[in-house]
Write a structure and sequence with these properties.
The complex is a heteropentamer of chains A (98), B (498), C (472), D (89) and E (222). Chain A has one domain: Helix Hairpins (Orthogonal Bundle), CATH 1.10.287. Chain A is built from three helices and no strands. With 498 residues, chain B is mostly helical. Chain B has a domain of 166 residues. Chain B is 74% helix and 3% strand. Chain B is built from 19 helices and two strands. The radius of gyration of chain B is 21 Å and the shape is globular. The two termini of chain B are 33 Å apart. Chain D has 89 residues and is mainly alpha-helical. Chain D has a domain of 53 residues. In chain D, α1 packs antiparallel against α2 and α2 runs antiparallel to α3. Chain E is globular and about 60 Å long. The chains are: A mainly alpha (98), B mainly alpha (498), C mainly alpha (472), D mainly alpha (89), E mainly alpha (222). Chain C: Keywords: Cell membrane, Membrane, Transmembrane, Transmembrane helix. Chain C: Belongs to the CPA3 antiporters (TC 2.A.63) subunit D family. Chain C: InterPro entries: CPA3_Na-H_Antiporter_D, NADH_UbQ_OxRdtase, ND/Mrp_TM. Chain C: This is Putative, Na(+) H(+) antiporter subunit D. Chain C: It is found in: Cell membrane; Membrane.
Chain lengths: 98, 498, 472, 89, 222
């Protein structure tokens, strides 16, 4: 198993693992973790799948990582304000219609 | 935009523009609103007269605008269209006067008159539609503009009636849309052409029969054919002017007019007969005539009785159309006008009784003739016309329908006509008897001193005028511009060209 | 100014406006209006340029593909940019009256960046560039949804964020596989190659799944109703009308050009999902007791119609393609107008429970008629744009003989009539709140103009289809 | 000497397994704080993987942004969350 | 019932993993050889390191949009109601202060080095920005309030600078050169450095502000 292919397969496995974690997670923070791992797995497939030392995917993955941190930061801030100072104003569990 | 193209649009605009302006007028601007309404109605009458004169001399008024590739919005004032437009224009003028008087102090009049004008625009649009897509457009606009009028009083009953009205009419609209779309897919065109365009289009006959069924079901809702008539009696909860113009003239006539267009200008009456669909239509019409009259017998509420009477009378038109023959066609088409005149008179009078003396039930009408002689006289003329006694207009249409039925060998139709006339008598004569020959049981407020007329002039004049028209249409039937002669012109030009 | 330089301007102009919106503490209202009107002018210029040439392209940085990024606009992109450009100034007008101070400043900045992302997406010709614009669109939409919202809005925005990121990553995985197999990210170079590529089917499946999740199409629609219902009116109008359309546009591009409408199974799957979406979500909309949730479910239902049209394109060709575009355009206008009008009602009544809407038609006649007009288009009643779309969709379904689709289209129309008239009925009755705040007139005029244009566009069917051109 | 040539593939396999393990632990531990710690570890290992894939820029970015900053944000969030309610699964 | 659901989900995802793994390891023959293209035009890109060339010249448009994404995230965080600082803040530990005094200059130096090295070796604005951001956060944690005050007043100006300069360059190239971000080969190097340095500053400020958003320290938005 050459290095590249091994990481590409790893990326695929991590994608499914994080997707599973995303679906069963209850706490939103855990979902954010899962989304981050999923992002990393996609980037792994992107670079490991392409040719060796191909600079294009590397540049794109850097862009992807910055976008991921921006999204995580926004998600965390929503999450913290969602938890909010008062304990009781958590969103009602039964969102009607969903 | 030549003058010939501008005129149909102008006729539409005379009620559309005042309607839109009225929506934005403040509630209090009563005089401005009334002036706008009446001005619009008068101008429409003048324009219609010009077109009448033009069409009778062979002019052609048409305008079209492409909506989608293969689909055009087209207005065409042919002879059949003008028959319905003239009826609508005249009765809208009178009903506007009546409505101004009737809704003297009630709230939401800006909304009422706005939608009232939109509704007439839709009716005129239905009449002048040059193809099935324009017909569908105005047909649906009619549904949308009449719903607020039905729920005008905002009571629970009104909203329930409104919901039922919507259920029927939007369902009908969906059937009409499906039929139109399928027809277009099969034949590639939707333009109304005399003697129909479906014959040589290569579509198989079961498909065409299914399309016919869908189209007639769609328009049948508004024409109140039996299984689809449920909304009409309940819609009587609307104020009297609405019941008068809409449920006697605009809405139900649009349905009947639709049947005429479909049978004559889409399928062509001979081809429809070949398909065997006209027999089905005739059967449904006959059932509706009898059923409507029977249900009318049992109604004590005056407006519901008139409503069921409308259900049965409109099917005369359907019957006339379904019987293949020039005389029956004339009978059906002319009844479109006559029934409108007679039924609007009856509804005007019912409105007068309700508004002036608060009478709603037939049983309460004892001796009303003494208290309100003119209104009851108008009621009598119209009622006798409905029964079909000469010299009223009703006689003319039943006469032609009977002749047509005999000519086409449909003797069963003659029995249906005779039977329904008997039933008409059965539910109208008792009312006349009560009104004229019974002593008044309740003590009504006497006519206030110093006031000559029995009720407000705006409420009294319209029924009297329409009653006169019923008489004139009957007596002067053979005069050149009478409804009967015009119907004959329509039948000769449209359906039996040499 | 050459036509090709119009494309970058369509992105730079809103982005610069958004940046200024965030930087300048004051003057957000006029900036918002000025930039969105300028954007409309650019959109009209693009339509004008396209009318002649049919296609406009601009290679960024002068580098040819596969090295650089190409911006391309055809009939569909021009139509979408035009309709988004037409809606933006009206939403800006509404927001300048609805918001003030800090909230107006953030709305101005975020909405203009949102608009820039939208324009960028409609002209992007590169798969990764589409990912970045999708992400920018998603994040700005989430930020807008959370703007000034309460706990419910925050929870809905967080779920929206997670859904949109997951969708983007699934799409990006598909892009990675395509890049691996072809070495290029350019749509033009990839066109038609999709099916034959090693792993092409897996890539397509991933991309479609991601885009369907981002477009909140029926089985994956759970995150949309709370997000759109809890946002403020101009935001929910922008989200429901514009944001959910971008992934569908991208799905069309990928399926029709890159994969050349491959695999009839995909068409059947899309049709099935669309049909289920139309029926299930229209039913959900009918059952809702809150007006904004009703309108949000109506969005998901209308997306079902768009999927039906898309599914029929390979078989029915121009009719389905025209149906897709006309349905999309009239839904943008009608839904934006409807959300603004319902927002007016809710602001006046203090809540958006349907049974509590008091005598609105007296005090907000413009908003009530906006609801009616928008409803006409959503129901697909003539003479509205919605009717033109529904008519073409019916023709396409009849042409391909899918009679069950014809039934779904008609039943969907009836259900739409039920929930629209449920809205209208409640504006006709009830008691009145004496102390309710009077609304600034321009909020009502914005809603009415949008709703009226949804009906008016019914008369522009021919020019729109001519601008649209043939199936890509 | 052949053994040496076996080193790189062995290292890749080992790193891949380590990555899978840390990810699995980060996603499925019961408490939030250990999850974040494992996530940061995962980020560091991922930076190593990028080096193995000869993508130094990405390794730098992953270490600085992926593990570093995202980790800091997550730590701050967990600290704030832990101040309020017990860890949930 | 929940256990069954999880089991089915697990099974499905295993199958997906298998399919993905197969798809990812399929033999491929890409039609385009991108590294060759990049090598070919590297000379005109103004930098010698291929990744930076792609990031800031060949696909500079993506990077511009990515900076806007960061800006949107910041706006999204700032428009939410500010969080009260944590109750247990307390005095800053001595060790932290010492560590900060030691690390800060190093971090800033490395960040600037990365910015400069990006043209020829692995490095660049984003990695440098992240390090500078880390330095900023460390400074704040170590109680350097003077830096926080500057950040508060000029937050949007500093954060918006990176995108502003990039937009200016883009507009300039469009107006004079006729193509968006068409950096003329001779000045490409300089322009890239200008863009990268402002981007570095903005990224650092944005990342610090995003961290502030989590309420670690009280923030007073004007």
């Amino acid at each position: 198993m050459t290095g590249q292919a091994c990481y590409a397969v790893l990326g695929a496995l991590l994608f499914c693992l994080s997707f599973h974690a995303l679906i069963i997670a209850v706490h939103p923070l855990r979902r954010l973790l899962a989304v981050n791992v999923m992002g990393s797995s996609v980037f792994l497939v992107f670079i490991a799948g392409a040719g060796p030392r191909d600079p294009l995917p590397q540049a794109l993955v850097i862009t992807g990582i910055v976008v991921a941190v921006a999204a995580t930061a926004l998600g965390l801030n929503l999450l913290l304000r969602l938890a909010g100072p008062a304990e009781d104003d958590r969103p009602s569990a039964g969102q009607d219609g969903s | 935009m030549s003058e010939h193209e501008l005129l149909p649009l102008a006729v539409l605009a005379t009620s559309l523009l005042p309607g839109l302006v009225i929506f934005f007028l403040p509630e209090g601007a009563v005089r401005v609103r009334s002036v706008l309404n009446l001005a619009g109605a008068t101008v429409k009458l003048v324009l219609v007269a010009v077109m009448l004169w033009g069409v009778s001399r062979g002019e052609n008024y048409a305008v079209s605008y492409p909506l989608l590739p293969g689909l055009t919005f087209s207005l065409r004032a042919d002879s059949l269209a003008l028959l319905f437009v003239t009826l609508s224009a005249q009765l809208w003028f009178l009903t506007t006067i009546y409505a101004i008087g009737y809704l003297e102090s009630s709230p939401n009049r800006a909304r009422f008159f706005g939608f009232f004008s939109l509704c007439v625009t839709a009716t005129v649009g239905v009449a002048m539609a040059g193809n099935l897509i324009t017909f569908l457009l105005f047909y649906e606009l009619l549904t949308l503009s009449t719903y607020p009028l039905v729920v005008h009083r905002e009571t629970a009953a009104a909203r329930a009636a409104g919901n039922r009205y919507l259920a029927y009419t939007i369902g009908g609209g969906a059937a009409l849309l499906l039929g139109t779309a399928w027809l277009y897919a099969e034949t590639g065109t939707l333009t109304f052409t005399p003697r129909g365009f479906v014959d040589g289009s290569g579509a198989s006959s079961p498909v065409l029969a299914a399309i016919f069924f869908l189209l007639v079901a769609g328009v049948g809702v508004k024409a109140a054919l039996v299984p689809l008539h449920g909304w009409l009696p309940r819609a009587m909860v609307a104020p009297a002017p609405v019941s008068a113009l809409l449920h006697a003239v605009a809405v139900v006539k649009a349905g009947a007019f639709g049947i005429i267009r479909i049978v004559y200008d889409v399928f062509g009456v001979e081809y429809a007969a070949e398909l065997g669909v006209t027999d089905a239509l005739a059967a449904v019409a006959a059932v509706t005539i009898i059923y409507g009259s029977l249900r009318a017998l049992a109604q004590d509420d005056l407006k519901r009785r008139l409503a069921f009477s409308t259900v049965s009378q409109v099917s005369y038109i359907a019957l006339g159309v379904a019987i293949v023959g020039p005389l029956a066609s004339i009978g059906g088409i002319v009844h479109l006008v006559h029934q409108g005149l007679m039924k609007i008179t009856l509804f005007f009078c019912a409105g007068n009784y309700a508004e002036t003396l608060g009478l709603h039930k037939v049983s309460e009408l004892d001796g009303v003739g003494r208290r309100m002689p003119l209104t009851t006289a108008a009621f009598t003329v119209a009622a006798l016309g409905m029964i079909g006694l000469p010299p009223m207009a009703g006689f003319i249409s039943k006469w032609y329908l009977g002749l047509g039925a005999i000519e086409a060998g449909a003797t069963w139709a003659v029995f249906v006509l005779a039977g329904s006339s008997a039933l008409n008598a059965a539910y109208f004569l008792p009312i006349l008897h009560r009104a004229w020959f019974r002593a008044p049981t309740a003590a009504w407020a006497p006519v206030p001193a110093g006031v000559r007329a029995e009720t407000a002039l705006a409420l009294l004049l319209p029924p009297v005028i329409t009653a006169l028209l019923v008489l004139l249409a009957g007596v002067l039937a053979s005069v050149q511009y009478s409804p009967q002669e015009w119907a004959t012109l329509v039948v000769r030009r449209e359906f039996y060209a040499p | 100014m050459s036509a090709s330089s119009l494309l970058p301007l369509l992105v730079l102009w809103p982005l610069a406006g958004g940046l200024l919106g965030l930087l300048l503490p004051r003057g957000a209202g006029p900036l918002l209006l000025g930039v969105s009107t300028g954007n409309l002018a650019l959109a009209v210029a693009l339509v004008d340029a396209l009318a002649g040439a049919g296609k406009v392209a601009h290679s960024v940085g002068g580098w040819s593909t596969p090295l650089g990024i190409a911006l391309r606009a055809d009939g569909l992109s021009a139509v979408l940019i035009l309709v988004a450009g037409a809606v933006a100034p009206l939403l800006a007008l509404y927001a300048s009256a609805a918001y003030a101070g800090r909230e107006l400043r953030y709305f101005a900045g975020l909405f203009l960046l949102f608009l820039g992302a939208l324009n960028g997406l409609f002209i992007a010709g590169d798969l990764f560039n589409l990912y970045v614009t999708l992400e920018l669109l998603g994040l700005s939409a989430v930020a807008l949804a959370a703007l000034g919202g309460g706990a419910a809005a925050l929870a809905a925005s967080l779920r929206y964020l997670l859904a949109t990121i997951t969708g983007s990553l699934a799409y990006l995985l598909g892009v990675a596989l395509l890049y691996r197999a072809t070495g290029t990210l350019d749509l033009l170079q990839l066109s038609g190659q999709g099916p034959a590529l090693p792993g092409g089917a897996v890539a397509f499946a991933l991309m479609v799944a991601g885009l369907l999740l981002k477009a909140a199409v029926f089985p994956l629609h759970f995150w949309l109703p709370p997000a759109h219902a809890n946002a403020s009116p101009p935001v929910s109008a922008a989200l429901s009308a514009l944001a959910v359309k971008a992934p569908l546009y991208l799905l069309l591009r990928l399926w029709l050009s890159t994969y050349d409408g491959a695999w009839p199974l995909v068409a059947e799957l899309l049709a099935a999902i669309g049909a289920a979406g139309v029926l299930w979500c229209s039913l959900q909309a009918v059952l809702q007791r809150r007006a904004k949730l009703l309108v949000a479910y109506s969005t998901v239902a209308q997306l079902g119609y768009l999927l039906l049209a898309l599914a029929l394109v390979p078989a029915a060709g121009a009719a389905a393609y025209g149906a897709f575009t006309l349905l999309l355009v009239s839904h943008v206008l009608a839904k934006a107008g409807l959300f603004l009008a319902v927002g007016n009602l809710a602001r006046r009544a203090g809540h958006d429970r349907l049974d509590g809407f008091e005598r609105v038609v007296q005090h907000l006649p413009l908003s009530a008629s906006a609801i009616a007009l928008a409803g006409v288009s959503l129901m697909g009643m003539p003479p509205s744009g919605g009717f033109n779309g529904k008519w073409l969709l019916l023709q396409a379904a009849i042409a391909t003989g899918d009679w069950w689709l014809v039934a779904v289209i008609l039943v969907g129309g009836l259900l739409a009539a039920v929930y629209i008239f449920k809205l209208i009925e409640h504006t006709f009755g009830g008691s009145d709140r004496p102390d309710a705040t009077a609304l600034p007139r321009r909020m009502e005029w914005a809603a009415l103009t949008l709703a009226a244009s949804a009906v008016g566009v019914g008369f522009l069917g021919q020019p729109l289809l001519r601008l649209l051109g043939g199936v890509p | 000497m052949a053994a040496l040539s076996l080193l790189p593939p062995a290292l890749d396999l080992l790193l891949a397994v380590a990555l899978l393990l840390t990810a699995w632990r980060a996603l499925y531990t019961r408490a939030l704080f250990p999850a974040v710690v494992f996530f940061v570890a995962f980020g560091m290992l991922l930076a190593l993987a990028w080096m193995r894939l000869e993508a130094p820029d990405v390794a730098l970015a992953e270490a600085a942004i992926g593990a570093g900053l995202t980790g800091a944000l997550l730590m701050a969030a967990v600290a704030r969350l832990r101040g309020r309610d017990e860890d949930k699964p | 019932m929940k256990r069954l659901g999880h089991a089915v989900l697990g099974l499905l995802l295993l199958m997906l993993a298998g399919v993905l793994a197969w798809a990812v390891s399929l033999p491929v023959a890409p039609g385009q050889d991108v590294p060759a293209h990049i090598a070919g035009s590297l000379a005109d890109s103004g930098v010698s390191h291929p990744v930076t060339a792609v990031l800031l010249n060949f696909r500079g448009y993506d990077t511009l949009l990515e900076l806007v994404v960061l800006l949107v995230a910041l706006a999204g965080v700032r428009c939410l109601a500010p969080l009260p600082p944590p109750s247990g803040g307390g005095a800053v530990g001595g060790v932290l202060r010492e560590l900060a005094a030691l690390l800060l200059p190093v971090l800033v130096l490395v960040a600037l080095y990365l910015l400069w090295a990006g043209a020829t070796r692995p490095g660049g604005a984003f990695q440098g920005g992240a390090l500078l951001g880390a330095a900023g956060i460390l400074a704040l944690l170590a109680g350097r309030d003077r830096f926080l005050a500057v950040l508060e007043q000029r937050l949007w100006l500093l954060a918006g600078l990176g995108v502003g300069v990039f937009l200016a360059v883009a507009a300039g190239t469009l107006v004079w050169g006729g193509t968006l971000l068409g950096l003329p080969p001779e000045q490409a190097g300089i322009l890239i450095l200008v863009i990268e340095s402002f981007a570095l500053l903005s990224i650092a400020v944005t990342l610090v502000a995003l961290f502030l958003g989590t309420g670690e320290l009280e923030d007073r938005d004007p």
